[in-house]
Each structure stands twice: as structure tokens, then as C-alpha cells.
Design brief:
single chain, 103 residues, YefM-like fold, three-stranded mixed beta sheet, 15% strand
């Protein structure tokens, strides 16, 4: 993380934008933190747009309330509906048969 005054960032914005791909840049104004330059990928932008959309937030809140009132859908029902085979249980040990040593 680098801490850089605003006038320096303004004079060399492209340089600091490129540097932000490797580390965050804290931009200061009058010696105080004012902003952070942080590189963003397409996936980051998509997440940010969803998470900051009031309609999306309202939908999530509605779904949470419904879940608290009535509970969720059992995984077996979801698998059946989506035609996904049941997965093997985590941590389940499969035992191989040893070849018999018949002489």
C-alpha cells in the first residue's frame, strides 16, 4: 500500500492507476486520507453494481425474511428439481477390497 498526496496522483494518474493493479494507493488531501485507488476487474464491477442496487438489496432482504418465516428448501428437493445427482458425502471413506491371496 502506498500513500500519495492528491497533487502527485493528479500529475501522474496513469502511473498510479497502473500501480493500483499491484497494490492499493491511498490518496491524501491536506495530509488526510481522502480516497483509495483500487484496481477493479469485470467481476468486481459486476459484484459492486449488484450489491449497490437498491432493488437487489430489497430482493435479498425479502428472501431473508421469507426464509426466517418458513425455512429453506431441502437440498434433496433442489437436486431433484434440477436433476442433479446426489453427491457423495464429504469425508466419506470408500473402502477398496483387497485382492484375496488365494494360493
Amino acid at each position: 500500500m502506498k500513500i500519495v498526496p492528491l497533487n502527485e496522483v493528479k500529475n501522474r494518474f496513469s502511473t498510479y492507476l497502473e500501480l493500483s493493479k499491484r497494490e492499493d494507493i491511498v490518496v491524501t488531501k491536506n495530509g488526510r486520507p481522502a480516497a483509495i485507488l483500487h484496481a477493479v476487474t469485470d467481476e468486481d464491477l459486476e459484484d459492486y453494481l449488484f450489491e449497490s442496487d437498491p432493488r437487489f438489496i430489497a430482493r435479498i432482504e425479502t428472501l431473508r425474511r421469507e426464509f426466517q418465516r418458513g425455512g429453506g428448501t431441502p437440498l434433496a428437493d433442489v437436486r431433484r428439481e434440477l436433476r442433479v445427482p446426489a453427491s457423495r458425502r464429504r469425508g466419506a471413506v470408500t473402502r477398496r477390497r483387497r485382492p484375496s491371496s488365494v494360493a
